[in-house]
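User: Teach me something about this protein's shape.
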Amino acid sequence: MTDIFLSASAAGLADLLAFSPPGWGGNLLRGLLASVGIACGSFGLGLLIGICGAYGKLYGSPMVRDLFGLYTTVVRAVPELVLILLLYFAGTDLVNRLLTLMGYAPVDINGLIAGICVLGVVQGAYSTEVLRGAILAIPQGQIEAARAYGMSPALQLRRITLPAMAPFAIPGLANLWLIATKDTALLAVVGFNELTQTTRLAAGATKAYFTFFIAAGVLYLALTLVSNLIISRFERYSRRGMPPLAETR
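Assistant: First, the predicted structure itself:
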């Protein structure tokens, strides 16, 4: 009797998570891909903002330092959900108002682009502080040697600063990447169809809440494990020629 019950449960679970309709497995994978796409885009945008912010706070004029200081303070002080709601709705409304003032018709901003921009702005504030700390950890002799050779700021950034700060920045940036993968779930509140929103729709349609939210948790865990594997390879590559971590402790 128990075997029959377990077989029936396994068959029902397989039907719910099947990749072809009426199963929801294909939709969950598409939601996961959307989440990964948003995380990649927002992390890249945040990294770009972070490099500019770190350089601005370290080497910029007093006004530039104050502007980046205000940006990092405000973004890190306000809850991310509030920022997402504010930037998503107020940002799209502001863009359409500007277009109207310039004589253009309002546009329907793509949810994927809006999500990447919103999370990228949030990621940028944290990346700024991670990269600023990593740049400060570079031995000053390397920077002074680059200046003594007459390197331009751009060449110094590409050949000295970025490679030298990478071992110090990767642990913090790895945390930001993992936060970015999970922050994509916050976009469900604005209706974007990523993994959490797809899971909620599947659970609501089938009433199998436990099954689908456990499946979503497994997918997020798999994404984290794969990310950790890739990050550890990057970290080993960036530390080539340096003593192993165990010897530096």
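Now, about its shape. The radius of gyration is 23 Å. The chain has a mean pLDDT of 84. If you'd like, I can walk through any region in more detail.
User: That's plenty for now, thanks!
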